[in-house]
């Protein structure tokens, strides 16, 4: 499971910064992805999610797991 930690900029209510963490430390104990000063909470989370997806794709490839796109 991925947990997102977002913080609102104290000087600008619409700007958010944050990163994602896996609840399972064996995946990574470090933050995955990072967004800084992104306009809107939803957009900040989406930006972080892109890097989480890239991380998971690399992890799957390194572990011999084939991923298939579905509709």
Automatic annotation (TrEMBL):
Domain of life: Eukaryota
Protein name per its UniProtKB record: Uncharacterized protein
Species in which this protein is naturally found: Trichoglossum hirsutum
